[in-house]
Design goal:
Blueprint lengths: L1 H9 L3 H7 L3 H14 L10 H9 L14 H30 L3 H16 L10 H18 L1
Length: about 150
């Protein structure tokens, strides 16, 4: 199994890479195309599966193969450029505040947020993860304590 994945990735084949990544390459590519087709307002919050299924002519109202696995692509497709800019702002502020504070606890919060964000590039669960909201809240508490 490992040898097959290694050869698919190292073979520089888009088909092989798509297969090795459990079809994520195709999901991301088509998600980006949906976002490009709807730059101003996207397709609507929660409508990624429907737009993806419509684009690829998939059967069923919400086929499982249309589930997004990349938070930035999903945000761009569902909310357009305004949503993507808001996500970027949330990430910049949410990560920079705890990472630039002096306490080691705040830096741990910042590193944990960055780790979840990197994970959300491969699994669309950034907003659904309660750890994100808890860590963002802690970052605010640390920032407030720093000011005092």
């Amino acid at each position: 199994m490992t040898n097959g994945i290694r050869s698919a990735v190292l073979g520089h084949s888009r088909v092989g890479l798509n297969h090795a990544s459990s079809d994520r390459y195709r999901l991301v590519k088509n998600g980006i195309q949906i976002a490009i087709a709807h730059p101003a307002g996207g397709v609507g919050v929660g409508a990624f599966k429907h737009a993806y299924a419509q684009r690829l002519h998939l059967k069923g109202q919400e086929p499982k193969s249309a589930a997004s696995h990349d938070t930035p692509v999903t945000v761009a497709a569902e909310t357009g450029l305004p949503g993507l800019l808001l996500l970027a702002w949330l990430c910049v502020v949410g990560f920079s505040v705890p990472l630039r504070l002096r306490s080691s606890a705040s830096r741990i919060v910042g590193v944990a947020l960055v780790a979840i964000a990197v994970h959300s590039l491969f699994y669309n669960a950034f907003f659904e993860d309660p750890m994100v909201w808890g860590l963002l809240g802690l970052a605010g508490v640390f920032a407030r304590e720093q000011e005092a």
